[in-house]
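forwarding from the other thread:

> can someone predict this with iron/sulfur cluster?

sure thing
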Amino acid sequence: MRITAQDLYNYTKCKHRVYLDANGDPAQRGEVSAFIQMLWEMGLQTETEYLRTLGDLEFENLETLSIDQAAARTVDLMKQGVALIYQGVIQSDDLIGRPDLLLKRTDAGSNFGGYYYEPIDIKAGRGWQLRNGKRTKFKTHYAFQVIFYRTILAELQGYVPPVAHIINVDKEIEEFDPADFATEFDAAFNEVKQLVGGQDASEPVLCSTCHQCAWYRKCRRWVERNQDPTLLFFVGQNKFQLKQVGLRTVADIAGMDVSKYLKPANKIPRMGKTNLSRMKQRAEVVLSGEPIVHHGFELPTGKFEIYFDIEDDPTRDLTYLYGMIEADGHGDWRYHYFLAESPDDEEKTVREFWDYVSQASDAVFYVYSSKERSSLRRLMERYGLDPTVYDQYVGCEYDLYTDLVVKYSDWPSYTYGIKSIAKQIGFSWRDPDPSGANSIVWYNEYLQAPSRKDRLQRILEYNEDDCRAMIAIKEYFERQ
Ligand code: SF4
């Protein structure tokens, strides 16, 4: 049994993944998605770029050594007291970690002498999350990995410093206090030991990000075979509470007497009559295989229609495309867009979009998520854009996902994402593998090789089809 920092990272996303990575049949593991592959490559590129900034500073590079070779070499180098080790391997019993950097520090001693090593990871993102320019929380998955290395080093060298650091995507050092995560980390660490050791398997929790996971097909089969509650939209982690009160399958939920689960003995935390009734209805829809549309929705009328979709790359904290279909409501429409062909064009592009919005006060902007609004707000703060234009946009926005699909319909699907819903009503994308994650991959491929205009074309077609899918969904509701 070997526990790695990756296990701690995965734990923050999906417990069952930790179990499968250690105990699953490798033959049932699927291919790594292009998006995950891209994240790995970006991570490596970020590390390489950071190492270049070290200039003449010498460091020991162990990246080409196998785990066992690197582990032996790392201990030798630590005993020698070298200044910096890149991709060293530290080990203690069944814990094994490969921090990006091991930095020698001399403000305290350790088993090695008058110095010790501090583990530092180089991240392709930022550690501190910000709200209105203020730090809110340090990312748990970053913190867990560094604390894991510290756990090993505490054994290996007998000392760890009171604060911990990462190097972020801007090559800045970010500091956090490991004590803030102590209780959370201890609980996670104990659970990870159980999962890796096979004493606990947890269970699949089907959600919209599972498509990116190499175990997706296996989990999907398990969920369908067991008629697991996560086949229903909006159940997710709540399934564990449902199972505790005997609601183990979709059929159990479809057949439940809601009033029984409102009384103390069977009460499910944070689930009242409305939630349970809706869940029961969704279970009935999953069993029937037919969607239903509820009465009572109202769509904007008499307005110029704009179907609007943004493409963001969260790995670069970048918004690169604003795509719009302008429709006259009588079947005629035209697609146009503002595209940042390089990250440096982000400001220019959003300013073009701001001008566009300021001239569209009589329009309704149909979107299919809250992402557009939050991205525009972030960009307004970043570039000091006119807030009255933002307010005007918010006043003209209609979110088809939140205000229509989620509120007024039920579908035989665990996700109500645009791909799932539009495909169920017969809409198809021109691209054989359409997804927001793939759009990010294509954009990054273009940035790597700007002669590849076909990548941009693929993004634009995908974005246009997302807008067309919104039209199809809205028309579907109108027909009901
Ligand atoms: S497919 Fe989903 S549920 Fe299964 S291991 Fe991956 S993330 Fe977890």
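Residues 14, 16-17, 20, 204-205, 210, 213, 215-216, 219 surround iron/sulfur cluster (CB under 6 Å). thats all i got for now
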